[in-house]
Amino acid sequence: MHAWGHDAARRFKPAAPEMLRATATITPAPNGQTCPGVCDDNFVAMTTLRILIADDHPLYRDGLRAALAAAGFDVVSEAADGRQAIALSLELQPDVVIMDLDMPRTGGIEATRRIAHDSPHVAILVLTMLADDESVFAALRAGARGYLLKGAGQAEIVRAVQTVADGAGVFGASVARRVMEHFSGQHPSEPFPELTEREREVLSMVAAGQNNAAIAARLALAPKTVRNHISNILTKLHVSDRAQAIIRARTAGLG
């Protein structure tokens, strides 16, 4: 089970980009909260919301379900992958879906896109380990109303669920900072800052449709070196295969 930390949440109602910095407010995190249970500040849900949890880790789902139930929410079902999340959302029409991104079969981004399209009244809160810019903005483009990392404390998650259900946006502090930088025009100079310059170069060539032999010849590298670079890229981007890496790269403008 992942630790539940003390990161604060920033909330704001949808606004013009230039107003984001003015409308963002900080919500205090719980004191000493490290695992699911009753919060130190005894925060409880203001309304009985119906929640669907989508995460492929059973133990994490169990802990999250207990935390949400302690806050007064009704967890109507759980999904172990994106395909189940889509089907259960269509069937149950929950108020909020708490969505992991890195799941088997259909991933969380595509599941978010499908749910937002088919049931736009269902609020989607991403709760994931993925902290890179591309995952954040892909989720928001797909229709997520909020984005928290799995280090978030229980009180922060409970508040975030209520916030997205009310129609507002909510982001963990580090995510909110990057969202505001994005809208203020302070973009990172390069996509995928976690990659080395050589890995980014290889990824760009992969996204352009070049195979390993062509990449090796173009960069004067041994084929084994190219394979190692691609393996490192897949690991750092949290994707399982070359096709997913190509999608991420092209979405970011590479290739």
Give a written overview of the molecule.
The structure is a single chain. It is built from eleven helices and eight strands. By secondary structure, the chain is an alpha/beta fold. It is elongated. The N terminus is likely disordered. An eight-stranded mixed beta sheet has the order 2-1-8-7-6-5-3-4, sandwiched between helices. The protein has two domains: 175 residues, Response regulator (Rossmann fold, 3-Layer(aba) Sandwich); 55 residues, Winged helix-like DNA-binding domain superfamily/Winged helix DNA-binding domain (Arc Repressor Mutant, subunit A).
CATH secondary-structure class of the largest domain: Alpha Beta
Name the CATH superfamily assignment of the largest domain: Response regulator
Strand order of the largest sheet: 2-1-8-7-6-5-3-4
Briefly note the CATH topology name of the largest domain.
Answer: Rossmann fold
- Rounded to the nearest angstrom, the radius of gyration is 19 Å
N- and C-termini, Cα separation: 38 Å
Total strand segments = 8
Shape descriptor reads elongated
From the helix content, strand content and strand pairing, which structural class follows? alpha/beta
Which runs of at least 5 residues are low in confidence (pLDDT < 50)?
Answer: 1-45
Task: Supply the number of structural domains.
Answer: 2
Strand content: 5-15%
Mean residue pLDDT: 81
Count of separate DSSP helical elements: 11
Task: Briefly characterize the structure.
The protein is α/β, with parallel strands linked by helices and 255 residues long. It is built from eleven helices and eight strands. It has two domains: 9-183, Response regulator (Rossmann fold), CATH 3.40.50.2300; 197-251, Winged helix-like DNA-binding domain superfamily/Winged helix DNA-binding domain (Arc Repressor Mutant, subunit A), CATH 1.10.10.10.
